[in-house]
């Protein structure tokens, strides 16, 4: 019996950690839009450092992806699905970087402090500009909605592989057991 080829342990850890963080951030963002006052301040104090942490983890994850090849997709997968898988992963990675960067840029343009944790502040990455702040705020919202949509599609594809196709794609990321990593 051949071992299932899996993503590396680091890739699996980062995937599930970031999945939980990103889903939490999407919900925090929705609640932030619907609240004000002390509740808004509390959510914002969670949102900023978590976004920066996601950005750092996305960079680590991208580096790991380039250094450790992901397992190959099954040979039975049609070419169109292979292209869709590759395209959706590129989009997910782009959004994992773009969302926190637009948030940081938005706060910079609004002349708001970017508090990472406690008294640790990040430097502004854009000059103060109310017009740019408004544009980036709108962009951050639309990127968040896009990320939510891509996650729904990603989850649907994962469930398709796990429950219908049963082709090992889901197990390559979901299994906690050790196994061969990367390509042969």
Automatic annotation (TrEMBL):
Predominant location: membrane
Judging by the UniProt lineage, the source's domain of life is Bacteria
What stretches pass through the bilayer?
12-34, 46-63, 90-120, 140-165
Q: What GO biological process, any one, is recorded here?
A: respiratory electron transport chain
Q: Which InterPro entries match?
A: Cyt_b561_bac/Ni-Hgenase, Cytochrome_b561_oxidase, Di-haem_cyt_TM
* GO terms assigned for molecular function: electron transfer activity; heme binding; metal ion binding
Keyword list, A-Z: Cell membrane, Electron transport, Heme, Iron, Membrane, Metal-binding, Transmembrane, Transmembrane helix, Transport
| SUPFAM superfamilies in UniProt | Transmembrane di-heme cytochromes
| Keyword field contains Transit peptide | no
Q: Which GO terms describe its cellular component?
A: plasma membrane
Provide the protein's localization: Cell membrane
Q: Where does the Cytochrome b561 bacterial/Ni-hydrogenase domain lie?
A: 6-173
Q: Does the keyword Transmembrane apply?
A: yes
User: Which prosthetic group or cofactor does it need?
Assistant: heme b
**Could you tell me the membrane topology recorded for this protein?**
Multi-pass membrane protein
Which family is this protein grouped under?
Belongs to the cytochrome b561 family.
State the name under which the record lists this protein: Cytochrome B
Q: Organism, per UniProt?
A: Komagataeibacter swingsii
């Amino acid at each position: 019996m051949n071992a299932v080829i899996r993503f590396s342990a680091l890739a699996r850890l980062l995937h599930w950690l970031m999945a939980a963080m990103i889903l939490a951030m999407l919900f925090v963002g929705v609640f932030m839009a619907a609240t004000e006052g002390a509740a808004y301040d509390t959510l914002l104090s969670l949102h900023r450092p978590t976004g920066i942490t996601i950005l750092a983890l996305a960079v680590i994850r991208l580096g790991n992806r380039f250094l450790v090849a992901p397992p190959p997709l099954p040979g039975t997968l049609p070419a169109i699905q292979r292209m869709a898988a590759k395209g959706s992963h590129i989009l997910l990675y782009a959004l994992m970087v773009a969302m926190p960067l637009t948030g940081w840029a938005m706060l910079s343009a609004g002349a708001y402090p970017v508090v990472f944790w406690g008294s640790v502040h990040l430097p502004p990455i854009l000059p103060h500009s109310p017009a740019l702040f408004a544009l980036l705020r709108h962009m951050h919202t639309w990127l968040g909605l896009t990320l939510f949509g891509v996650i729904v599609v990603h989850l649907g594809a994962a469930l398709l592989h796990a429950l219908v196709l049963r082709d090992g794609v889901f197990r390559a990321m979901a299994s906690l057991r050790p196994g061969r990593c990367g390509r042969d």
